[in-house]
Amino acid sequence: MNNHFFTVFFVISIIVIIPNAYAEYEDTIVVMETNSGKLIFEFFPDVAPNHVTNFVELSREGFYTDTMFHRIIEGFMIQGGDPQTKDGDISTSLWGTGSPGFTIDSEFNDIKHNRGILSMARSADPNSAGSQFFIIHEDSHFLNGQYTAFGRIISDESFETLDRLATVDTLHSVTDTSGNAIGDQPMNPTVTAITKVDVITRSEISGLSELLPPETTDVKPMQTGGGKYTNMDYGVSFTTPQGWLIQTPTLVDASTPNIVVAGPKVGNISPTLTVTIKTTTDNLQQNIQEFKNEIQPLIDQGVILIEKESSYRTDNFDGHLMLSTANFENKDNEILKLGFASVLFVDNDRFYVLQYMNTAENFPRQQILFGDMLTSFEIFSTLSVNSEDNISMEEWKEQTDFKEGGGCLIATAAFGSEIAPQVQFLREIRDNTVMTTQSGTAFMTGFNQFYYSFSPYVADYERENPVFKEVVKVTLTPLLTSLTLLNYVDVDTEAEMLGYGIGIILLNIGIYFVVPAAAIIVIKNRIK
Q: What global pTM score does this model have?
């Protein structure tokens, strides 16, 4: 009997105790003193753990002490963290080019770049962040999803300091002009100098109010390549180059690509791989002719020249290859010589254009990346064999009155805690696994209607009562852990989705009802 009781207790303990990967920085505060006042930061390790670790450890090592905020743009942001601003012998023209000697990969997320947000500076390469950071002076939502937000300032004094730093005189502000980054440097850098940096815990500082979770945006965070990229909305997947930016632009007109993968800029041009998808009732030859008709005016003007055409076949589709060159004139009257490779094909009443663009000089060097994209390109049905029945994730959210964050009791309980990464992980499983089948979509639609009938009220009470929030968090931990099992299985059919779904439901019934009941029976028998 004792062995049975120990086993039940051990199972419950294993389920509830989850490795706390980010707890180390959950209550970490960085206090940065400058000649213009004090800045106090808190962090978001749940969405940008590597950036938080990097910033906190550099702060702890004294890396930022004696550096300056070297770039000031009132109404936008202040930027600091360049070690080259420490050395008076280094030309100010090199400010903004320094680094700690290493880089960290991007962790783009859905946090809005509101006033006071701490975000990481980078070059055109998304994985080029090092030590330089910036603090948003006024809301700058055009940065959302393209830079890694990883913290925020949290006191009235900090915002007063931010305003003082953002309004120091620069060449641009004094002359009322705009130009290069040198003009954004402070005319008196001493007032922007960082004199001391301390890393402490929240309990060591008084007077900090409990803030609401940071606002999030519907803008999809920019992704970076390096492996297989899958887009559920468009039902395609393909290999992307390491470190290239993946974007899904707003569709302005029929010529706007659905997916853009952009590489690091060389000169004035970033090489790109694009996917454009249109519905069609025509065959491939008719679509090829229509494609040519669209560019015919540029061909007539001598801007574009089609160099070669041929059939193109992979294991997944039969298409048509066009190799072209183009001479475009930029605003400085310089001629840009570009190369294009386009592969066109039709599948299931959709016309696909896969395209690679680069400078004529660099075109051959990176053409192999386009080949990798073509050979790996796959099309799949996201929900139904009838493509007209498919809906995008955004359409599903609209139809089901989906809410993310504010009214979600799970997100509210998890915010700023060790289970926040699991909640984000769960969202990815929902979008990439559950929502790929009709049964999964049907279940989520019904569950969503039921869940949000009470969730907002529970979430509001969690914000009002921290003890209740902790109780909810502990209660949810086994559920979240069990759901992550879906990430370790392949769900390719409706039957598999139903099978795994029912299995997880039975597992949770066991965790929440059978195990406690067994424990009660064991305890009751021992008392007797």
A: 0.53
